[in-house]
Design goal:
Length: 75
């Protein structure tokens, strides 16, 4: 088997390999794939936030008007 000939990498080399592999994957994605990945990442990160935490962050970043717009019940 080919993997028996692999040399062990140090942490820096392994980290560099991981960066290069991630870049290879990203280079193969189209903008819709990238959008979906970013959306999923952000949504997962936001999932644990409380209403008050979301309000504070949205108001700080975008203002009270944006909070009012986003927090309106769906029609």
């Amino acid at each position: 088997m080919f993997h028996q000939n692999l040399k062990s990498m140090n942490e820096e080399q392994l980290s560099n390999l991981k960066d290069n592999y991630a870049e290879l994957i990203v280079d193969g994605l189209d903008h819709k794939d990238i959008y979906r990945i970013v959306f999923d990442y952000l949504r997962t990160d936001i999932d644990s936030a409380t209403e008050s935490e979301l309000k504070e962050e949205i108001v700080d970043m975008y203002g009270e008007d944006k909070w009012d717009e986003l927090s309106k019940p769906a029609p």
